[in-house]
User: Fold these one by one.
Assistant:
Number 1:
Amino acid sequence: MAVSATWSLADLKSVIAQHWGYRTLRPLQEEAMRAVLDGRDSLVVLPTGGGKSLCYQAPAVLRGDVTVVVSPLISLMKDQVDRLRSCGIGAVALNSTLSTDEYHDATQALTSGEARLLFVSPERLARPGCQRLLQRLDVRTFAIDEAHCISHWGHDFRPDYRQLNRLREFFPNASVHGYTATATERVRRDIVAQLGFKDPEVHVGNFDRPNLTYRVQRRGDLMKQVRDVLDRHRGEAGILYCITRKDVDELAATLEKRGLKVRAYHAGLNDDLRRGAQEAFMSEECDLIVATVAFGMGIDRSNIRFVLHRGMPKSLEHYQQEAGRAGRDGLEAECVLLYDEEDVELWHYILDKAGERGGVPEGVRANAERQLGEMLRYCRGTACRHRALVQYFGQEYTAPSCGACDLCLGDARPIADSVTLAQKILSCVARVKEGFGAAHVADVLLGTPTDEVQTAGHDSLSTFGLLRGHDGLLVLDWVGQLLAQGLLGQRGAGEPALCLTAASWEVMRGVRSARLIEPANPPKVKASRAAAAAWKDVDRELFEGLRQVRQKLARERGLAPDVILSDLALRELARVKPRTVEEMKRVYGMGQVKVRDFGAAFLEAIRTFSPP
Ligand code: ADP
Ligand code: ZN
């Protein structure tokens, strides 16, 4: 059924320019849309912010029949419907919150052809009533959003998604399309199998997010570290993630005492408080959220400018998800991760607890341990963070430097003679006969005569005091960096002893290199290339003025501000400063309906804030 024969790429582009105001496509969007138009099952894996929704929305507009979108949360459906309508596209959601009248109107809009997209939950889709409706509408296209929810290997498994495996049976002539940001191979295979894809097209995008700047710091003076991040992002939106509810409450209270407007969010708060926090954040009434990872999937705000982790996440998969909520609009954003080895202990404790309750089968536990280890290795990394992340997810990273991480921007600097320093540390491990942990080895190197050091007679070793005068935490960091590079090993449980690996001996013999880093002093915090480019020629004062106008328009209509207009389009307006409707139509992100509905308000603001 080659439907696409009738539609060309030019048709698609014109629909997209007209409704969304985008003149270029993001990587793989064209291929993904072609699969929908061709009626070929497909799985599209793009990072958060990669523009997955457009892949099924634009073809739906072009085709003219109804496309069914399966979505996991009512709040997400509402947001999507709002966004589509604000672009002049008919869309409805069928869910339990509708009154009888609303339900009737929605089905009416579907039958009359006015609504092109129908959002439903998987439970709803399994109901015979809903299936009869879809059969009557002769639905040919299903888009499964957040498709990884079907796999219990993913991080958001939802049992109700499993019902989707019967979709094929009920709609044998339809094509099914899955969309996810989950990078793991296992989850992808599971999606293809569960959804019963026939000869699917699989498109996997590049997982790098060049607009995000990654920074990792050992947690020290926490409040100073937090303040530094907040200072860099005054008036902007951010999420501060904590591991425990107690940390959330404490951090939120401290920030509030300092006069900041913040909301707390965790599973221990009642429904009203949680909903209130989420709504305040989505409506931009409040820009800072302190939360556990319970604050997650329903968060569709695209202009989050920073994500700060107060503690280490339990896996890089989680980190990628959580940090990935920043900068979905494609504009620059910062992800700062504060960690401490004690976070690893905390996660062990949490795993043990879950194990006692019988919640963690053996294989899962081993997997969790491995993921924790990888996470720690990332924190202790001494080379580019973008590269480390991309490689972890199995892709190549070819650029020599990203220009957007602490290590490439020079927050930390490599030690000139890393090899000699590494040799000193490794030879100390050899001298203590590979029988002691990192803290003890650091004491010996620093020349600290603790009771244990004296009892073991290590104060008379030639390596005693070899690194005298250095900061103790920094010496521990170096040990961590050597561990992360496999240039040191560990054995034993509890407080494991440091031991030498084959690679350690190569470093000691001088046939292998090592890379150790220390914080630059005073720390430089340079803006990334993305940040410089995204603000180029933008009139910031005008941008702030337009933001206020957007906020007002949003409030009047009960919509989220970035449904009215994205930050990207707002910055374009503040850069181009259109003076007429015609000029405004040419601005990136200004679709026809947006110009019609909001053009006058923004033109007036431009005249006021920036007289010609
Ligand atoms: P994902 O679901 O992959 O995380 P979205 O579909 O929410 O991403 O898109 C992220 C943002 O990028 C949205 O604001 C969307 O409107 C915007 N976007 C999508 N495609 C394009 C494009 N071709 N040009 C500009 N912006 C785009
Ligand atoms: Zn880098």
Note: The CA atoms of residues 230 and 238 lie 9 Å apart.
Number 2:
Amino acid sequence: MSAKNKKKSTPPAAAPAIAANIESHMVENRVFKPAKEFAKKAHVSSMDEYRSLWKKSVRNPEKFWGGLARELDWRKKWKQVLEWKAPFAKWFIGGKLNVAENCLDRHLHGPKKNKAAIIWEGEPGESRTLTYAQLHREVCRFANVLKRNKVKKGDRVLIYMPMIPEAAIAMLACARIGAIHSVVFGGFSAESIKDRANDSGATCIVTADGGYRRGAIVPLKHNVDAALKDGSTKVKHVIVFRRAHNEVHIEEGRDVWWHRELEYVSAVCPAVEMDSEDPLFILYTSGSTGKPKGILHTTAGYLLGAYVTTKYVFDLRPDDIYWCTADVGWITGHSYLVYGPLANGATSIMYEGAPNWPESDRFWKIIADHGVTILYTAPTAIRAFIKWGDQWPARHDLTSLRLLGTVGEPINPEAWMWYHQKIGGGRCPIVDTWWQTETGAIMITPLPGATPTKPGTATLPFFGIDAAIVDDAGNEVGPNEGGKLVVRKPWPSMLRAVWGDKARYKEAYWSEFKKQGFYFTGDGARRDKDGYFWIVGRIDDVLNVAGHRLGTAEIESALVSHESVAEAAVVGCPDEIKGQGVAAFVTLKTGQTPTDKLKEELRKHVANAIGPIAKPDQIRFADALPKTRSGKIMRRLLKQIASGQTVTGDTTTLEDFSILARLQSTEE
Ligand code: PRX
């Protein structure tokens, strides 16, 4: 790679304004071309090749995707590639296949049989390797355990697990028998498990006694017990894997131990023939209003998206040791730790714990110990590594790495440069990948053998993806003009529904540009003169904290559920490591006294309701919130206050001006 132009980022004369007042202040002139050596071996090795393939793919997406789908294993071929009755898509109509069969069985008849599928490291230091043959056997056995626990095709199974191979085994076992899994991030609270169990109508939960995180045990089973305590869910069976050997309660008639159940089952479990459009999983993600949305992904389209993007974006080679550091509780863990790599027959690394346990070099040690060739992680982690210091990566031999990736939020150019130099040794391309829980797979990304990269941009759309930036009327805007990021044509791994809520599906994604039939991402962005996409951030009321989406409404409702709170408004505030922090403005009920103790109590209250990730960084007590005459909270003003800026812009719609002065004098 060569830096064509070494000039540092300079602020432009006038920052381009993005819809809904998001502004982009970044102009980045450094360009890094793929090295010749890398390009030579790559699946796509020049920009000309990319451009011509991309053009063909969006001119006739059905032909393009239909061609790629042949690389999967089908029990029965599809009759029609796409039926698009906006906003409802069906892909590969009439096709029959099984995702677990594509991830496992099809690799068993050749040299991949004894290849490592998952190499796992526990936080305390133990390590396990599962070959494709072994993983297949474990998945079959556990699929039979699910059946013993009355799980059938179409039933929902919640998976609330630490980062251990059994999390992937449980997901694949569900896929094998046609059950719909919904993985709940192990950092979420009992309340979140209960909400998801209720919303999905799950009948079974797969969990563990505990998992390790920063030397402590996360009491997973205990949280499940608390979630099921009030009896509001339909959960009848809880299967518990023994991981941490912490003491747990076993409820007679409901709870069973994973290892005991295995004694009763065989290792033979034929995969169920699934229709292309049968649901594969539900994953909950935050939206701008109310409770999290259950994003539904289906069988064939999702698998194809995960498979194809893993192959091309990470430019997979047969001997790669690939490590996606995301938790299986997020979409990145689904698509790029489990389904994408396994569908490709790759070797995937899985690590249970924190990056700074026992010391701040754990990631670099894992890379050196296992000879990791591809690393896919989040900007928030990179910023933490920078803070911890260069001495940690310097202790280890990182020369096995050949490709780096990032995901989850915009990466600031300085973090990109650090990643490039200190981790990639100046030689590894970086793929900055833009996508969402809803898109199922990577949408905007460099192809490492073709695309010249610039620090801070996800560059260009993947094959078959017709992304654009439009104004409020849906017209494409010019170079460097800000607007809303949309996708103009359906793609195979797109979400199919919000579980149980058709109206919300239409409203959240398809109402903004209903006339045009565009999918609205909720992100603001601009394209530069080369057509590269620069994502600026969310324009709805969704925060991106450490690469994870949190709805402001969700945190507000958690705060208001505390007995002392009358009203709450939550906005984002800048945070050096997390990208965005959570700032809460709270008014108390009459008779309640604002104290530091109460602030701490409210923080804990939010952590209990949602999970520690949502804990407000700032809590400010106010005697009133700034509202318009129609009663809408003026978040723009609160954002400025939370960021320590002076309030500017139009305040004429503010109902009570004195509130502003009083708010500005409140201290965190
Ligand atoms: O705002 C964008 C940001 O993360 C959002 C999607 O979040 P989630 O569904 O949790 O999925 C995260 C992992 C795919 C997007 O709407 N985002 C994701 N990747 C990037 C990004 N922003 C800028 N650059 C990225 N590479």
Note: The pocket of adenosine-5'-monophosphate-propyl ester is lined by residues 285, 331-332, 407-410, 432-437, 458, 521-523, 535, 537-538, 544, 548-549 (CB under 6 Å).
Number 3:
Amino acid sequence: MSGKKLSGEVFYPSEEVIERAHIKDWEKLNAEASDDNEKFWEDRAEELHWFQKWDKVIDDSIKPFYKWFTNAKTNIAYNCLDVHVETYRRNKLALIWEGEKGDFQAMSYYALHRETCKFANVLRSLGVEKGDRVTIYMGRIPEIMIAMLACARVGAIHSVVYGGFSVEALHERIEDSESKVLIVQDGAYQRGKIVPLKEIADEALKRAGGIEHVVVVKRTGQDVNMEFGRDMWYHELMNLPIATKECTLEKMDAEDPLFILYTSGTTGKPKAILHTHGGYMVGTYTTLKYVFDIHDDDRFWCAADPGWITGHSYIVYGPLLTGATSFMYEGAPNYPYPNRWWSMIERYGINILYTAPTAIRGLMRFGDAWVKRHDLSSLRILGSVGEPINPEAWKWYNRVVGNEKCPIMDTWWQTETGMFMIAPMPSVPLKPGSGTKPFPGIDMDIVDEEGNSVKSGEEGFLVIKTPWPAMLRTIYKDPDRYVEQYWSKYPGMYMTGDSAKKDEDGYFWIIGRVDDVLKVSGYRLGTAEIESALVSHDAVAEAAAIGLPHDVKGNAIHAYVILRAGVQQSSELKEELKKHVGHEMGPIAKPENIDFVDSLPKTRSGKIMRRVLKAKALGQDPGNISTLDE
Ligand code: WT7
């Protein structure tokens, strides 16, 4: 992206940044990758360990069920741990962790490998075999990493459910995944309070069958119910003679599932996105290494939660694959004071911070002084993900946090893509609010209703035209929905669900979702899930949820509720309904505001027209309402 003068406001990388970067010439790499995509990914795959190499890099014989690295044998956990334990990295820190209370833990690659092997033996002794599903419902503590890696080691498929979800969300995910084992904590610290994860899990398990064993990690220490024969303490299991540090590793086919992760779609229930050992490994490794320019001495902090794809790919797998040190923090960003994050960056000498615009906006509100109290000179690169970053937040992040010397990597991707898809590299000129261009070798475009490329500057649907290694392989147990949801609108093109524009320099600008998916504080929620949580309350006959702009959260949830006949409207009832959604779905899904209404705008076929509700709330013209029923 050099040579030609770029339009608009552009931030050019410093000599120092370019000097150090793995990729100094993005154009050259992109040309190579576009020229021979298979060779590009094959070369990257060669940097990792395989028990047996592939016959083919990409098998596209049954589209869109692409396969990568066919017949190759590997195991991502082996590449995350065993490979490093054989080198000088054995005693290097794999994980640095700080608890919300200020407690601290550090684990070398050796220690993380040992704990993973021990827990993998525990899982096997509980009857977990290759291909079995294990649900993990935890907060941000080291054991979540151990649990995920142990599943990978024995070939079990982990299904992590974000600790901020609640009873019904957990129940639904346990049931759909048909998990045998659940791993949970007694409680998680959040803003000085305890979220009673085990209690929530107990309630979910009353609704769901199938779980044979529950492993409970002790974190908060309050009394919890332990069901005899079903529930067992993690620390007790890890002390049993079976929990030895030698554990045979399952040699996985590159295409064997590594995990499923539930995410919200356009309609109905959350869908389980399936990722595999081989391609996902190559994709996360390569993208993290190049985009965040990971070197051996880097301490990388992805401030997301392991319960979302960002945490899977860039707290757990990516950093360990690159042999970096991953940092994890348990609690809230402003606890006990708004300098918590900055204090940790200073104390641990963090080099790279990767977070979401909502967090930046939240911390920005407290003013510069909280940041400026700390020496953040260890920072080299910053990152953003989850929603478009507004220029104001970008500039504050650049000026106050990055001291104008840290390039900001705005990474666009999804649960489904597994890895960064549109992202710069440190040597690339930046424009605030744009993730620049697709990762080398990835062909993305913006198209109109008919699937034709739109002109630069015009808005359209964001699509992906080439397969990529970390792509989702299917929706677990629902291949038809996979085809329908992502590949049916334009044959041969993957529909992202986002709208976007490209500028005259080929830079991509994301506008937002075009479906009924909401991004609230960077979290992805479906209007359907919020609505079904509302409707599960006795007082509610019908409900509609929409997102309205919010200064910090990006979007805030607004709900419209039709009460059942005879139910009285009251502000207490509004509060009760919010609480009910919190209890069923989780605090992140609580509506900001609820309005009682007598009717909802619907199409003649009975579909709620959320677009009309939104336009009305914003005082805008609802556009075409010809399909609106009376
Ligand atoms: C949706 C995917 C995996 C990243 C975390 C979210 C939005 C994501 C950006 C960005 C603008 C972004 C899109 C996308 N999104 N990153 N850098 N700029 N929008 O993963 O929960 O699956 O959500 O997040 O709308 O479709 P997710």
Note: The longest strand covers residues 540-550.
